[in-house]
Write a structure and sequence with these properties.
Elements: H1 3-19, E1 34-35, H2 36-45, H3 52-61, E2 67-70, E3 73-76, E4 97-102, H4 106-112, E5 122-124, H5 128-136, E6 141-146, H6 148-153, E7 159-160, E8 166-168, E9 176-177
Antiparallel strand pairs: 1-3, 2-3, 4-6, 5-8, 6-9, 7-8
């Protein structure tokens, strides 16, 4: 499968497993899972055909490991705007995590901290490189350091998804470190 097709199938999966399953008649279970055959059939009925082999390739090749397959089921690893319980246990974060954004968001972040916006949790990266890639999707990236160790000591709960993304409900501004202005 070529790169364009891989991206197209991946975006389709993200849209329907994270945000709008009802658009193609899917009902996810409480953990966000759906049967693979049900997904493939629903997509085909709505004009987007792909094979199980293509699906397996997209899941395996996705650099961010956005999807997980267990047995005959699939789900998005995180990033849902719909109500799902991923069943992730609380986890102790490393002392610092990182968040990639762009300059136009900095004033609001300085004032309000990081909020989940349309998602259930704030997404944090384990390293600066990953956060840089995340921020670059929206323009020139700015990487913020999150004092996750202090947050954890102060009672904030963290979870880590199957693909290594750290999740928390919000990051108050006092736990953020902004890069020096140039």
């Amino acid at each position: 499968m070529d790169e364009r097709r891989t991206v197209k199938v991946s975006k389709y999966l993200s849209k329907h497993l994270r945000h709008q399953p009802e658009r193609i008649g899917l009902t996810l279970d409480e953990g966000g899972w759906v049967e693979l055959d049900t997904l493939i059939a629903a997509a085909a009925v709505h004009g987007f055909r792909f094979t199980r082999e293509e699906l397996d390739q997209v899941v395996a090749a996705n650099d961010k490991q956005r999807f997980a397959i267990e047995g005959t089921r699939i789900r998005a690893s995180q990033g849902h705007s719909i109500d799902v319980d991923l069943g992730l246990p609380p986890a102790t974060p490393p002392p610092y995590l990182y968040h990639g954004t762009v300059a136009r968001n900095l004033d609001a972040i300085r004032r309000d901290g990081l909020k989940p916006m349309s998602r259930h949790d704030v997404h944090l990266s384990p390293d600066r490189e990953t956060a840089t890639r995340v921020g670059a999707r929206r323009g020139r990236p700015v990487v913020l350091s999150v004092d996750s160790g202090a947050m954890h000591r102060d009672g904030h709960v963290f979870h880590v998804s199957a693909n290594g993304v750290w999740l928390t409900k919000a990051v108050p501004p006092e736990y953020l470190r902004f890069p020096e202005s140039r």
